[in-house]
Amino acid sequence: MTTPQVAFLAALGLILVVVVAFAVLVVVTAARNTGDSGSSATIVLRLSRAPRDRVELGRWAFWAHRVSGVAIFAFLALHLVDVSLYTVSPGLYDEVHVLYGSVGLRLFECGLLVAILFHAFNGLRLLAMDLVDIGPLGARRLLSAVVALTLVLGAGGSAIILAPVL
Amino acid sequence: MSVPRAVAVRGNRPPGLLTWLLIRVTGLLLAVLVLGHFAVTHIVTDVAETGSTFVAERWGSALILGWDWLMLGAAVLHGAAGLRVIVVEYAPRTAVRVLTIALVALSAAMAVLGSVTILRVILAA
């Protein structure tokens, strides 16, 4: 392991810590503001109701949108640095870039793909809600489509990303 | 829904309209640019094959350089605007100002780093 590689992995570790800490902040703040205990029993009870009554799904999507957004932006900050190494020397770029093909980084890329897919599709849903009056039920149906697309494309993409190391 | 008249102080433009437009327009661009970028570098091509040879080949095209630069600008503006909302909503009131300055500095540094990279590639060609 060379110094640039160690620096890259340390920065990536720091990013993961920041993202997890932010996710905790969002969930704790949300639980306090909504008076939700956040226990799994409560969550199961809520999800077992009729679809039109599950209005809190919109709030969960809102929080997931924030956490995925912060995660993508944090990775972008690191990605700009590793790509900039190319203009320092292509050899240095390759030295760090080889890490992207490792098992650990490929797993990270699968998580990044899911974050990007959710943030992109949910963002398009928010745009649709702003421009067209689709109502709360329409918004929830669109959210189901967002989650379905994220899961299907995320699973398919992850299979392709992980295939070389399986 | 109507905008309350009392808060629309500057002309007829509702407050926050420019931020709303900025986030929506850059977001729409990014939905295409980022998903396309990820598809090319992780799905169509395996990530292990995207070393300096791959970068050199791709950045030989003005279209790709333009794509990447537009993606950089849209992503930094979109992220900075989104994070500004997060700072205002989560940070203690007394820390909002210093965190906003830090956010602007980080975003500017990212935009400069990415732009310098692209400019150096263009100048070396």
How would you sum up this structure, described in words?
The complex is a heterodimer of chains A (166) and B (125). Chain A has six helices and no strands. Chain A is mainly α. Chain B has one domain: Fumarate reductase/succinate dehydrogenase, transmembrane subunit (3 helical TM bundles of succinate and fumarate reductases, Up-down Bundle), CATH 1.20.1300. Chain B contains four helices and no strands. The N and C termini of chain B lie far apart (53 Å). The interface between A and B is large, with 40 and 36 residues.
Task: Put the structure in a nutshell.
With 166 residues, chain A is mostly helical.
Helix content of chain A: over 70%
Question: Which structural class should the secondary elements of chain A be placed in?
Answer: mainly alpha
Largest interface: A-B, 40 and 36 residues
Provide the number of structural domains of chain B.
1
The rounded Rg of chain B comes to 19 Å
Q: Report the principal-axis shape of chain A.
A: elongated
How is the biggest beta sheet of chain B arranged? none
Please supply descriptive tags for the structure shown above.
heterodimer, A: 166 residues, mainly alpha, 6 helices, 83% helix, elongated, B: 125 residues, 3 helical TM bundles of succinate and fumarate reductases, 74% helix
What order do the helices and strands come in, and which of them pair?
The complex is a heterodimer of chains A (166) and B (125).
Chain A: H1 3-34, H2 40-47, H3 56-88, H4 90-97, H5 103-131, H6 135-162
Helix pairs in contact in A: 1-3, 3-4, 3-5, 5-6
Chain B: H1 17-44, H2 52-58, H3 62-90, H4 96-124
Helix pairs in contact in B: 1-3, 3-4
